[in-house]
């Protein structure tokens, strides 16, 4: 699999940011994991990174996301979930 030709998808309600896209493309194992996880799981990683208030924190989270994906983790650790997802008529997150 060429890391330069595969289109990496975003999440449920978040597009894949350029910095995370570039970082994932730099690690074949992380890229394979990104393509294997669900759109909701991708959304959680993206939202967790986007929630950083400082660039230093964002950069650290991008690196950590790539490391965690390469280790086989499918969700970011210690993240309660994306607050941007809506709810259906029963109150369940969608």
Automatic annotation (TrEMBL):
Name of a matching Pfam family: OmdA
Name of this protein: Bacteriocin resistance YdeI/OmpD-like protein
Organism: Plectosphaerella plurivora
């Amino acid at each position: 699999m060429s890391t330069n030709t595969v289109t990496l998808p975003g999440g449920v309600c978040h597009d894949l940011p350029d910095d995370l896209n570039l970082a994932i493309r730099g690690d074949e194992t992380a890229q394979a994991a990104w393509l294997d996880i669900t759109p909701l799981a991708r959304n959680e990683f993206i939202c967790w990174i986007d929630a950083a208030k400082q660039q230093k924190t964002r950069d650290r989270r991008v690196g950590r996301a790539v490391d965690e994906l390469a280790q086989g983790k499918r969700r970011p650790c210690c993240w309660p979930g994306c607050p941007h997802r809506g709810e259906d008529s029963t109150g369940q997150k969608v």
